[in-house]
Amino acid sequence: MMIPDDQKFYFRHGKTAASLEELLQIIEGLDEHDFVHHVHEGRNDFANWVRHVLRNEDVARQLEQAHSKEQVLSVLREARGNAGSGQGGEGDQGTVAGEEVVFEPEGSPEGESLQSPFQDSAERAHQVEEQGDQGLRVPYASQEEDLVQDASLKETKGNGGNDQARGAADPHASAAKKDTKKKVKLWLALCLLFLIGVGLGAVIGWYVTGVVRCTP
pTM (2 decimals)? Predict the structure, then answer.
């Protein structure tokens, strides 16, 4: 069964592998710089892909112990020989078992959406492309980037309208706030009227007192 494009192993310069044989042939032509792009700092993209896509645990474990190009090639050549002689287990032929590849490692909740374990290799290939070293734009990584940009845009808009969002989410709180403002304004108006009344009363009282004193 053919492996879907979004589950193939993406190399730099537009190369892809869909089986152990194709993986072996492409790695044989890699220079050291391209090789360490996938195997470095305790990471091994080849082992992850073989385990989760080709479902070949034995080869994946051997690849995890391979830290150089020659060691990786040796493991793949041995796997090819075993497959040719019929000694390999399930997945040794480099094909996908069953009708559909589903990434469900042991212990994962049923129905949980999981990301492809070789997604990181595609993302790094996409990053290299953006720097001018890659001729292939990986669709999976491109979609991931678009999702991140869309989330960032939504977050920016959300930060600019937090007050409006809170008001829409809690209309009662918004109404109570408006009512409080009205009460404060009314109280200030009453205080102002009181002060004006006191002032007028004082003026009238002073005037009446003066008139009474002046009256014989």
Answer: 0.43
